[in-house]
Amino acid sequence: MSGQAGSAAGAPGAEELLEVTLRVNGVSRTAGVPARRLLSDFLRHDLGLTGTHVGCEHGVCGACTVLLDGEPARACLVFAVSAQPHEVTTVEGLGSDPGALGPVQRAFLECHALQCGFCTPGFLTTVTAYLEDTPDPTEAEAREAISGNLCRCTGYQNIVSAVLRAAELRRGATPEPTP
């Protein structure tokens, strides 16, 4: 059968594995996985990209948010096999060089929008996509943009400030962030 990697270790009754190839952070990556493997598990366990966090496993918290063709998607609700025709960007794909942070990462750092960090990858990917479509949001629009991501450590004010600061940075504005 085309696209199939065979059964797991040839064991009787073992789940059949499919060869899944995804373009993740600009690189084609392949692994043999069960058809029901979630994108979040594929990224974390099969590819070792642990920046995508799994919180609620129901698509509610936003911790597993990645970008599919530039649009936010809950990786815990997408099968890896169904993501094959799409470009996947994880938080690792947003940049990992501390000397060259992107505007959203820099804004989160400057505005102290990081607490324990568990929710941060989902916020970073969500905000990155949001600012592509809305380069100059109001505070109310920024709040609405992040409303699908849950953070248990903060009252969101610093995250909202980070969204607004990231918008400034993307536009080339350089005023210092407000605490």
Automatic annotation (TrEMBL):
GO terms for molecular function: 2 iron, 2 sulfur cluster binding; metal ion binding; oxidoreductase activity. Residues 18-94 form the 2Fe-2S ferredoxin-type domain. The keyword Oxidoreductase applies. This is (2Fe-2S)-binding protein. Pfam families: Fer2 (PF00111), Fer2_2 (PF01799). SUPFAM superfamilies: 2Fe-2S ferredoxin-like (SSF54292), CO dehydrogenase ISP C-domain like (SSF47741). CDD domains: fer2. The keyword NAD does not apply. Keywords: 2Fe-2S, Iron, Iron-sulfur, Metal-binding, Oxidoreductase. Pathway: Alkaloid degradation; nicotine degradation.
